[in-house]
Design a protein that fits this description.
Blueprint (H helix, E strand, L loop, with lengths): L10 H15 L3 H14 L4 H13 L3 H13 L4 H19 L2 H14 L4 H14 L3 H14 L4 H13 L3 H14 L4 H13 L52 E8 L2 E6 L4 E5 L6 E2 L10 E7 L5 E7 L11 E3 L2 E3 L1 E3 L5 E5 L2 E8 L4
Parallel strand pairs: 3-4
Antiparallel strand pairs: 1-2, 1-11, 3-5, 5-6, 6-9, 7-8, 7-10, 10-11
């Protein structure tokens, strides 16, 4: 939420705006949008309202409308701090919602003009470069900046390792994974990526050191490391798209990144099928009242070339449709063959991202 200061809203409009914020705070995003629309009917010249409306729409998976709201907010000449956050979230909508990485990078660059020491923006810019445009060298510079701002950001260390693995600099990649694991020892994605990097150079796994000799090196003598908490909401696993790989055939260990009322977690997919839903007995339980008890089915399929992938179909195993359906990459779908970077919205505040962990050759 923006620091709105003293809003130039009438008493009635301010009351509605506060109700919208309260609804969004408890994941009532559809209700929040309704309240924000009511405010805008009374006063359409408040950038804070347009911004909050955009955030709520983004959480609902309506990325195009969210971007339109951010554009209206920017047209009303917000403060520099506010403009930074709006451009940042606009970039996230393009990257994680629509998969338009070039537009996302443009937004992040606009945001960084206002706040060049915003670690989450550097990290998200790196994600777009690495996972969207397959530019690991440029992504590495972004992760270096994010780590310089906050050296306790385990996700930046992990993604730095993924960039180095893409560049086949496996020793350095392992060092970055080690630092991610020092910060977050239970990070299974970093453990898996580290193991694969170790296989590439023919060494056995070993526990990461608690004070690696390389920590703080490699960024240049002019960098200053400062403590701080990360506000990034993004978790990634590399697609391992090195130049010698065949890009049209995504290969790797399928992984789901789940965001729901219980927070964020990662599940490696290995079975032939999974039932996904709210019921605790389902194979993958999503914690939200907006998810049906048996919302969708994931089924493993095989390409003609022999590579595995997953297909998702709305509804229970016996064919009963879910209440909210599936929104895949911003489009309502009955089902789809999942590709790396696909985002599936099951309902307000419930999002699943499909990615691939790198596999050893």
């Amino acid at each position: 939420m923006l620091d709105t200061g003293q809003l130039k809203l009438s008493r009635e409009a301010l009351a509605l705006f506060r109700q919208g914020l309260a609804a969004a705070a408890v994941n009532g995003y559809e209700q929040a949008v309704w309240f924000f629309n009511q405010v805008l009917e009374l006063q359409a010249n408040c950038h804070e309202v347009w911004y909050e409306r955009g955030l709520a729409l983004e959480r609902l998976g309506d990325y195009i409308e969210a971007i339109a709201s951010y554009d209206r907010a920017l047209s009303l000449h917000p403060t520099e701090d506010a403009a930074c956050e709006i451009w940042h979230d606009r970039g996230n909508a393009f990257q994680y919602g629509l998969g338009d990485y070039s537009q996302a990078i443009t937004c992040y660059e606009r945001a960084l003009k206002y706040c060049p020491n915003h670690g989450a923006i550097w990290q998200n810019r790196g994600n777009a470069l690495l996972y969207g445009l397959s530019l690991p060298e440029e992504a590495l510079l972004c992760y270096d900046r994010a780590i310089a701002i906050n050296p306790q950001n385990n996700l930046a260390w992990r993604n730095r390792g993924n960039s180095l693995a893409e560049l086949r600099r496996y020793d350095e990649a392992i060092a970055s994974y080690d630092q991610a694991l020092v910060i977050c020892p239970d990070d299974q994605v970093s453990w898996h990526a580290r193991s694969l990097a170790a296989e590439k150079i023919g060494i056995s796994d070993r526990q990461p050191t608690t004070n690696p000799a390389w920590y703080g090196s490699g960024f240049g003598s002019d960098q200053t490391f400062v403590e701080g908490d990360t506000d990034s909401e993004v978790i990634f696993a590399s697609k391992f798209t090195a130049a010698a790989e065949v890009f049209s055939l995504p290969v790797g260990q399928p992984l789901l990144i789940i965001e729901d009322d219980w927070g964020r977690r990662e599940i490696i997919l290995e079975r032939d099928s999974y039932v996904v839903g709210r019921d605790p007995s389902t194979d993958i339980c999503l914690h939200s009242q907006f998810v049906s008890r048996q919302h969708a089915v994931l089924t493993q399929k095989t390409m003609p070339e022999g590579y595995l992938f997953y297909e998702i179909v709305d509804g229970s195993p016996d064919g009963k449709a879910s209440t909210n359906g599936l929104l895949i990459n911003g489009q309502r779908c009955q089902g789809a063959e999942l590709q790396p970077e696909d985002t599936i919205v099951f309902g307000p505040g419930v999002r699943v991202t499909y990615r691939l962990l790198p596999t050893s050759a």
